[in-house]
Design brief:
binds S-adenosylmethionine, 18 helices, alpha/beta, three-stranded antiparallel beta sheet
Length: 467
C-alpha cells in the first residue's frame, strides 16, 4: 500500500497492514519453531487474523490472491472481528468464518454472465452490460471497512450502474446514488428492484408464449419514444418517479402495462440488454438476431431472479432501502454531515466516452445526448480545455463529498491512471494533494493492478480520505 499522510502525524489506522518481522529471528525467546512463527507472519490468513489466528475456522476464497484483496480482507476483518456472526454475513473475502460458510459464498453462487470467481456479476450486478462497472466484492469490503450499517448512509455520487447501492443494500445499510445520465438511473433502479422480485409469482404470470408480443411491443415503442424527445433535466428526481413517468407518458398503451411495475421494468431491461448485445455483437461470431438475444436474456435473467429470490429467503436477507437520484456529483442534493461513507468511481479522466458507449440505449429512450454530454464530468469542453474542466470538476466533486460526509467518515474513491495525449494522468496524486486543503484529516492510496489487455490503464487506485 502506498501511504500518503497529510496531517503531519504518524498514521495509525493502516499500520496493521504492515508485516512486522522483527521478532521472527529471535527464536530463542519462544517455544515456537522458526517455521511456526514464520507461518504466522507470512501466511496471508494468519497475517489477516493476527492474534485471533485459528486457521481451521477461517478460509479465504481461493481466488483472493492480490495484495489489495488481502489488505481489504484484513481491513474488513478488523472492523468486525468482535462480532463474527455479523462478519459471516457481511464479509466479502472470507469463504469460511468461525467454521461456517459466509453469506458471500452463497450469494456469489447466484451466477451471472461474465462472472469471475466471487468478484463480480453475481446477483443482479450483471444485468445490462455497462462498461466500467465496479467489482461488487471489492465494494462490499470497502463498505465493511467504513463500518456502515442500518440507518447509516453510503453515498455513490457517480453511481453508474448502481454497484455500490446493490452491495450496500445487501449488507443492510441505506444508500443513495447520484447519476447524471437518466438511462443509468433507470438501469440501476431496475437492478435494485429486481433483488426483491418474487420469482414464483413472476414465473407463474409471465408466460413464454407472450414473449414474442412483449419483444414486439418494445420494438414498436421505439418510434413512439422518439416522437416524444425526452427533455429530462437533472433536477434531483427520484428514479422510481422517472420510471413511472416513462411508462405513463412515453410508452404506448398495451397489455404490457398491466404487469406490475417491477415486472414491466425488468422486461424493459431485458430488452435493453438484448439491444446492447445486438449492437455490439453484430458482425462477430456471436451475432444473433435481436429477438433471439431477447429470449436468451429472458431465460438468463429469470435464472438470476430465481437464484436471488431463493438465496435471500434461505439467508433471510431483505435488501435495505436505497435511493437513486438523477442529479449531479457537483451539487449534491444532501445535507452537510449526513453520510457515513462515500464509495465511488468518477469517470477516469477524459478517456472513456460514456455517451458513445451507451448511445443505443440513450437513442432508444429518446434522450438528448448533446445536452447530457455538456453536463458530464470528463466530456465537457474541447481538446486541452477538456482536461482542465475535468480537473475542476473532480476537485468540486471531492469538495462535495467532504461537505456531506459526517466527521470521521471515509470517502473511498476508485480512479485509474489513464493515458491522455500520450501522457499518464495522475489525478490520484492530485486528489491526495488537495485532501488536506479541502479539510480531510487523512489520505491513503491503495494500488490495484489491472491485469489483462487494456494498456491505457495499468493501475487503479483506491483512495481513502477521512473527514
Ligand atoms: C466510472 S463510472 C461509475 C461506474 C460505477 N462505479 C458502476 O459500478 O457502475 C462514472 C459515472 O459517472 C457519471 N457522471 C459523469 N458526470 C457526472 C456528474 N456530474 N454527476 C453524476 N454522475 C456523473 C457517468 O455517467 C458514469 O456513469
Amino acid at each position: 500500500m502506498d501511504k500518503k499522510h497529510n496531517s503531519g502525524e504518524t498514521a495509525s489506522l493502516f499500520d496493521f497492514v504492515k508485516i512486522d518481522t522483527s521478532d521472527v529471528y529471535n527464536t530463542k525467546k519462544s517455544n515456537e519453531s522458526l517455521s511456526m512463527r514464520l507461518e504466522k507472519q507470512i501466511d496471508p490468513l494468519s497475517w489477516i487474523l493476527g492474534h485471533d489466528f485459528n486457521k481451521k475456522n477461517f478460509e479465504l476464497f481461493k481466488d483472493v490472491g492480490q495484495i489489495y484483496e488481502l489488505q481489504l480482507a484484513k481491513m474488513e476483518y478488523e472492523t468486525f472481528k468482535e462480532n463474527l456472526e455479523l462478519f459471516k454475513k457481511r464479509t466479502a473475502y472470507f469463504k469460511i468464518v468461525n467454521g461456517e460458510e459466509s453469506y458471500h459464498s452463497f450469494i456469489s453462487k447466484v451466477k451471472g454472465k461474465g462472472q469471475i470467481g466471487h468478484t463480480n456479476q453475481y446477483l443482479t450486478h450483471w444485468f445490462y452490460p455497462y462498461k466500467g462497472k465496479f467489482h461488487g466484492q471489492m465494494i462490499k469490503a470497502i463498505i465493511n471497512f467504513i463500518g456502515a450499517s442500518g440507518e447509516d448512509i453510503i453515498l455513490d455520487p457517480f453511481m453508474g450502474s448502481g454497484t455500490t447501492l446493490i452491495e450496500a443494500s445487501i449488507v443492510g445499510t441505506k444508500s443513495v446514488g447520484i447519476e447524471i445520465n437518466p438511462a443509468l438511473c433507470i438501469v440501476s433502479q431496475i437492478k435494485l428492484d429486481s433483488l426483491r422480485i418474487n420469482y414464483s409469482e413472476f414465473s407463474k404470470n409471465i408466460k413464454k408464449n407472450d414473449l414474442h408480443m412483449v419483444f414486439k411491443y418494445f420494438n414498436d415503442a421505439r418510434a413512439y419514444l422518439n416522437e416524444r424527445k425526452w427533455e429530462i433535466e437533472a433536477n434531483n428526481q427520484n428514479a422510481r418517479d422517472i420510471l413511472i413517468e416513462l411508462w405513463e407518458n412515453h410508452f404506448p398503451n398495451s397489455f404490457v402495462k398491466n404487469y406490475p411495475l417491477e415486472w414491466r421494468n425488468l422486461l424493459l431491461l431485458i430488452y435493453l440488454h438484448a439491444l446492447s448485445d445486438y449492437t455490439y455483437l453484430k458482425g462477430t461470431n456471436k451475432e444473433k438476431s435481436f429477438e433471439e438475444f431477447f429470449y436468451i436474456n429472458f431465460e438468463e435473467y429469470s435464472k438470476t431472479i430465481k437464484g436471488t429470490y431463493e438465496t435471500f429467503r434461505e439467508l433471510d436477507i431483505s435488501p435495505k432501502e436505497s435511493e437513486v437520484i438523477l442529479g449531479s456529483a457537483l451539487n449534491l442534493p444532501l445535507d452537510n454531515d449526513s453520510v457515513k461513507g462515500v464509495v465511488t468511481s468518477p469517470p477516469y479522466s477524459i478517456a472513456l466516452d460514456y455517451v458513445k458507449n451507451d448511445l443505443h440505449l440513450l437513442n432508444y429512450l429518446g434522450i438528448d445526448t448533446g445536452k447530457l454530454r455538456n453536463r458530464m464530468v470528463g466530456l465537457k469542453g474541447k481538446k486541452m480545455e477538456k482536461l482542465r474542466m475535468y480537473e475542476e470538476d473532480i476537485r468540486k466533486s471531492v469538495e462535495e463529498m467532504y461537505r456531506v460526509l459526517k466527521k470521521g467518515g471515509w470517502a473511498a474513491i476508485v480512479l485509474g491512471d489513464v493515458v491522455v495525449n500520450g501522457k499518464r494522468t495522475d489525478f490520484c496524486k492530485k486528489i491526495i494533494e488537495w485532501a488536506p486543503e479541502i479539510g480531510f484529516v487523512d489520505a491513503y492510496a491503495m494500488t490495484r493492478p489491472i491485469l489483462g489487455g487494456f494498456a491505457r490503464l495499468r493501475y487503479e487506485y483506491v483512495l481513502f480520505l477521512q473527514k
